[in-house]
Specification:
This protein has 174 residues and is mainly alpha-helical. The protein has 7 helices and 5 strands. Among the domains are: 49 residues, no CATH class; 70 residues, no CATH class. Helix 2 runs antiparallel to helix 3. Iron/sulfur cluster binds next to helix 6.
């Protein structure tokens, strides 16, 4: 079967194909009246395989414009704060993790000390994190997207399970 392409379309397609695509099409054209190119479908399929799609890397100026558009589109309106508070620094979080691990190990090897909270204790704590803000809203330190406490950087799901750990707010909420 024969297929017909406007030459403008071939120009556009060739920009996304390996070099030589357009010349190969012109060479195989059954008919070329300067505006429409007629090709046998089989030939076009072969040429498409020979000159596959390439990833066109946009010019740096285009990338900069695109990034600027994204920044404008997703920028927080002035006066409105992000609902995701930032985490503490990596060093602070590493220190918190090391201290929590130490306390948990000590509790595990000390007779009579509790290491883990029960499920109901844990769910009461998670409820506090999720409702202790103004008017029953989540605690302002809770990052709702990943359920991490921005005061200590811990995942509330894990921290609430460990009996030696407590809310880092002053005064602690649990
Ligand atoms: S400050 Fe306390 S209540 Fe608030 S998210 Fe952190 S652990 Fe939960």
């Amino acid at each position: 079967m024969r297929i017909a392409f406007p030459l403008a379309d071939i120009d556009q397609i060739s920009r996304q194909r390996a070099d030589g695509f357009k010349s190969a099409c012109l060479a195989k054209a059954v008919q070329n009246n300067g505006k429409i190119l007629e090709l046998e479908e089989e030939d076009f399929t072969t040429i498409s395989r020979q000159y596959p799609l390439v990833i066109v890397k946009p010019a740096p100026r285009i990338i900069r414009q695109h990034n600027a558009r994204l920044r404008r589109r997703f920028a927080f309106p002035p006066g409105l704060q992000s609902t995701t508070p930032p985490l503490p620094s990596i060093c602070t979080m590493a220190g918190n993790l090391a201290a929590a691990t130490g306390r948990t190990i000590i509790s595990a090897i000390t007779p009579g000390q509790k290491t883990f909270r029960t499920e109901s204790e844990q769910s009461s704590i998670l409820k506090i994190c999720n409702t202790s803000g103004p008017a029953g809203a989540p605690c302002p330190y809770l990052r709702q997207a990943d359920q991490r406490c921005s005061k200590c950087g811990c995942y509330t799901q894990w921290k609430s399970k460990l009996a030696t750990e407590h809310c880092p707010d002053r005064p602690p909420k649990w």
